[in-house]
Amino acid sequence: MKKPVGNGPYLVDSYTRGSQMSLRRWDDYPGDDKAQNGGVDLKVYTDANTAYTDLLAGNLDLADDIPAAQLKNVKTDLGDRYLNTPAGILQTLAFPFYDPDWNKAGSEKVRKGLSMAIDRKQITDTIFQKTRTPATDWTSPVLGEDGGYQAGLCGEACEYKPDEAKKLIEEGGGLPGGKVTITFNADTGSHREWVNAVCNSINNALDDERACTAAPVGTFADFRNEITDRKMPGPFRSGWQMDYPLIQNFLQPLYYTNASSNDGKWSNKEFDDLVNRANQETDTAKAIDLFQQAEEVVRDNMAAIPLWYQNGSAGWSDRLSDVKLNPFSVPVYEQIKVS
């Protein structure tokens, strides 16, 4: 993006790629959602902790991601200038199905066993201070039942059952090479903390301190390059932030054969056929029912491990008021008022 153009309540005043974008109120904007402030300067941070430090120091007015390391302090630091609200975001572990070790007969038992070796409640309680919720399906509660959300669909496969986890992994032929490596980008999102916690949980469940290893990649760009080049040695950090509130958006882009965000290259004819039928259906309720059947195929194959539903979080300075996050966890900038 070299010359961004806005069509909302702001004009793009200046833009420095990878650094900052300055928006200024467009007084002639014809819409109802006119900006309640003079403009917004959007800054790029490669470390959420640095942004949080700048917020406390008065060098930043709004941080739209509170890092995990600061969650235990945020209410003391900010009081009522802190917001945590449900968002259409799901964190998962994806698998490299282009690797025969993860795509052979019985491997779904290994994936299910790994899922049951993860103590989601302990991780969301301790690492994320209860600001995330253990996932029980592959969508988000933000959808509601009308949008296709199925609470509890994952069943015991998303419950912490270490004895059953060990049994399933053994029945599935064991971990490829005797161990599993979880790859993640280390530059954003507090991923290091939770990946380490997931590995510790797996190691404890399997009584093997070497069963799981965390493998950080320095930047998100390098991480994405390795995914695109199909270099993942095992499960890797994945997830989805919805584009629109419908079950279709959580399934088709991620699991349909050769779909745009199907990074693990999972392919299943039954799933594809159900999605095709759903997309041809003119009755929305019937389409959602077909997508829900497709999600059951994802469950039965453990095409990805759902970890937790992620809330949106934000903290702001005492100069601001009327701060809200939309269902996509993005600040509603035009409603913010500046004193």
Automatic annotation (TrEMBL):
Pfam families: SBP_bac_5 (PF00496). Residues 2-261 form the Solute-binding protein family domain. This is Solute-binding protein family 5 domain-containing protein. It comes from Streptomyces prasinosporus.
